[in-house]
Amino acid sequence: MPNLRPSLDVFEAAPDHAAAEPARQPASRRWSWGWTGDAIGVLALCALAAALLTGCSGSDKPAAQQGAGGPPAVPVGVVTVQAQSVPLLVDLPGRLEPIRTAEVRARVAGVVQQRLFTEGGLVKAGQSLFTIDPATYQAALDSALASQARAEAQQAQAAALLARYEPLKEAKAISPQEFLNAQVAQRQAQAEVAAAKAAVRQARIQLDHAAVRAPISGRIGRALVTEGALVGQGEATQLAVIQQTDTLYVNITQSASEVMALKRAMAAGQIKSAGASGAQVRIRLEDGSLYSQPARLLFTDLTVDPASGQVSLRAEVPNPQGALLPGLYVRVQIEQGRAEGGFLIPQQAVSRQGSGDTVRVVAADGSVSVRPVKLGQSQGTDWVVLDGLKAGEQVMVDGFQKLMAPGMKAKPVPWTPPAASAPAAPAASAASAAQG
């Protein structure tokens, strides 16, 4: 800051004349004060000019830079599509059913004496399950055996009489009528023996039915009757149910419109049929997990249910460990065909409107164009694109909100699905953050 006190150079230069010229001292001070004010003005003007020059030069530089380069490219997430043979998987509802089911019923009337199995356990064909009081049927068998013995005795007597009459007939010692009666009696005795033997077999069957046996091998459920219950009176009382669960059927339904659309696509050559032998069938459980054993498609019904408009399909799935239970509701993934030269893109990359489905394609120079596409079926979180894309093109997946102004350029960054980006490296996380 300039020194504002009066200058003393005049007083030091002429000390001897200070007393003689007292009137000039005020003039010397006025000259010293005037010189100091001019210096202050000059310094202020210089500072102002420097500030103006600095401001002008600083403001002109960014403007020049903006006019030369334009706005920077915006990073967006993209996927590079590649043509492939895409399996067309359809997700359908299904319900599991045992490959065999047998109802164990009482075939004779009586009182249940004993249950011979463990509820919920495995049984083998022919294994005894219940015992019905056999006393009545044992007595019937004994009576039938006695009747058979009597008939056999009568047959023996008739046969002996006929043998005795044969020589007498040759000697004409008896009349032909007597010989004919002996022959008839012998044949009647044979018929009585045959009837008695049939009665014995019937009695044995009834006695055998008193021991209720398993008709098939499998897992048996709970007992539907207890010891002491009277069963088989006028009807075949159900005692238990056996199910074969080592292999299960999967009864599936599909909309008839979907089946017709698939057939039209196959007729147009867009889809290649997988065939009944080549179709892959997987079971998806209620918790979303896939069952470890693949299933096999058995048939597709040729008729449509008029009540529901559904077509029935059936598959067969192994169940050696018993992990699947009959009656369980599942989702079934069936490969019904393959799209040759198709593309898989994330569903969020597709804009679905009434005018059609479109995607945004990022060119090599960063320009973004809207491309109409033809979609097939969905597979999880992806769409199958049948037409509208070329191999190697970059389809925009996220960052749409950043390209609001027309003419903005995009900087493609490889897109990572959210589920796979959690354990990714920090660099990948930073790229995802830049895209969002």
Helix-strand blueprint:
Elements (H helix, E strand, L loop, with lengths): L8 H5 L11 H45 L4 E7 L3 E22 L4 E6 L6 E2 L4 E5 L2 H36 L5 H34 L1 E3 L4 E3 L9 E2 L6 E18 H12 L4 E2 L1 H4 L2 E4 L11 E9 L5 E9 L10 E18 L4 E3 L2 E7 L5 E12 L2 E6 L6 E5 L11 E5 L3 H4 L4 H10 L1
Parallel strand pairs: 1-20
Antiparallel strand pairs: 1-19, 2-9, 2-14, 3-5, 3-8, 4-7, 5-6, 7-9, 9-13, 10-14, 11-14, 12-13, 14-18, 15-16, 16-17, 16-19, 17-18
Write up this protein.
The chain has 436 residues and is an alpha+beta fold. The protein has four domains: 9-56; 77-86 and 341-435, conserved putative lor/sdh protein from methanococcus maripaludis s2 fold; 105-235, OB fold (Dihydrolipoamide Acetyltransferase, E2P) (Beta Barrel); 243-336, Elongation Factor Tu (Ef-tu), domain 3 (Beta Barrel). It is built from eight helices and 20 strands. It has a 16-stranded mixed sheet that branches. Helix 3 runs antiparallel to helix 4 (176-209). Mean pLDDT is 80; it is low at 1-37, 52-68 and 420-436.
What labels describe this entry?
disordered C terminus, alpha+beta, conserved putative lor/sdh protein from methanococcus maripaludis s2 fold, OB fold (Dihydrolipoamide Acetyltransferase, E2P), disordered N terminus, 34% strand, 8 helices
Overall pLDDT level: 80
Oligomer: single chain
Tell the overall outline: elongated
Please report the distance between the alpha carbons of the first and last residues: 56 Å
What's the β-strand tally? 20
Which sheet architecture does the biggest sheet show? 16 strands, mixed
Broad structural category:
alpha+beta
Element order: H for helix, E for strand: HHEEEEEHHEEEEHEHEEEEEEEEEEHH
User: Radius of gyration from the CA trace?
Assistant: 53 Å
Q: Which superfamily, in CATH terms, is the homologous superfamily of the largest domain?
A: RNA polymerase II/Efflux pump adaptor protein, barrel-sandwich hybrid domain
The CATH architecture assignment of the largest domain turns out to be Beta Barrel
Q: Would you state the CATH class of the largest domain?
A: Mainly Beta
Percentage of β-strand residues: 25-35%
**Could you name the CATH topology of the largest domain?**
OB fold (Dihydrolipoamide Acetyltransferase, E2P)
Whole-number count of domains: 4
In DSSP terms (H or I, runs of 4 or more residues), the helix count works out at 8
Helical residues, percent: 25-40%
- Spans where pLDDT lies below 50 across 5 or more residues: 1-37, 52-68, 420-436
